[in-house]
Amino acid sequence: TFYSSYVNTTHVSKFNEFTLWHYRLGHSSMTQHVLNDIQKSNSKSTVPSNIPCEICPLAKQHKLPFSQSNTTASNPFDLIYVDIWGPNPIQAYNNVKYFLTIVDQFTRCTWIYLLQTKSEARSSIQNFFSLVATQFNTQIKTIRSDNGAEFNMPSFYASKWTLHQLTCVTTPQQNALAEHKHQHILNIARALKFQSGLPMRY
């Protein structure tokens, strides 16, 4: 139509050939090979060294990498990470839908508790504290978790002289040790399930 032709003509006249193709290709990074091909279609154009674009920084910005934590453990159970995975979209045969992961920062030893509900995490954590005191003859100094209500036990932590560190909201990187352990566990579980041919509920 006349209107669309008018708009296209106006749009083309506003930008040079390289900028126009940059827009048409969804603001993708254009290699020298692509720039040369565009130049061949319009011999009057000179291949630019770069294509200034105000849109790209707005559309492609992302978080900077998180620096390494300066909180390190010198002994086992100086710092443990806890996190819950779930719910599993397919309920397991024993009604398990979640699992609690506990990772010791110093040794990287990991404990997993299967849960039917998130609320069971409280008793599992308390049992883990008893396990550490009885079997390893030591106390947990610091526990790090997200802001989930199931980890909110100030009276219990105070009775054990344990510091509770909370991660910032929507910042799972601060609890990365437990988050990465989830990915590792699930990768292994999926591989074994596919190998065995068992139903999803297992």
What does this structure look like?
The protein is an alpha/beta fold. It has 2 domains: 2-60, no CATH class; 79-196, Nucleotidyltransferase, domain 5 (2-Layer Sandwich), CATH 3.30.420. The protein contains 7 helices and 5 strands; from the N terminus they run H-H-H-H-E-E-E-H-E-H-E-H. It has helices spanning 2-14, 17-24, 32-41, 55-60, 120-135, 154-159, 176-196, and strands spanning 79-85, 98-104, 110-115, 142-145, 163-166. A 5-stranded mixed β-sheet has the order 3-2-1-4-5, with helices on both faces. A hairpin with a 5-residue loop joins strand 2 and strand 3 (110-115). The longest helix is centred in the C-terminal third of the chain and has 21 residues, at 176-196. It is elongated and about 80 Å long. Mean pLDDT is 78; it is low at 1-13. This is Integrase catalytic domain-containing protein. GO terms for molecular function: nucleic acid binding. Residues 72-202 form the Integrase catalytic domain. One of its GO terms (biological process) is DNA integration.
Overall pLDDT metric: 78
Q: N-to-C SSE series?
A: HHHHEEEHEHEH
Based on CA atoms alone, the radius of gyration comes out at 27 Å
**Low-confidence runs (pLDDT<50, min 5 residues)?**
1-13
Classify the fold: give the CATH topology of the largest domain.
Nucleotidyltransferase, domain 5
Question: Number of domains in the coordinates?
Answer: 2
**Approximate helicity band:** 25-40%
| CATH superfamily (homologous) name of the largest domain | Ribonuclease H-like superfamily/Ribonuclease H
**Helix/strand structural class:** alpha/beta
* Strands ordered across the widest β-sheet: 3-2-1-4-5
Count of DSSP-assigned helices: 7
CATH architecture identity of the largest domain: 2-Layer Sandwich
Q: What is the level 1 CATH name of the largest domain?
A: Alpha Beta
Portion in beta strands: 5-15%
Largest sheet: 5 strands, mixed
Distance between the termini: 60 Å
Number of strands: 5
Looking at the structure, what is the overall shape?
A: elongated
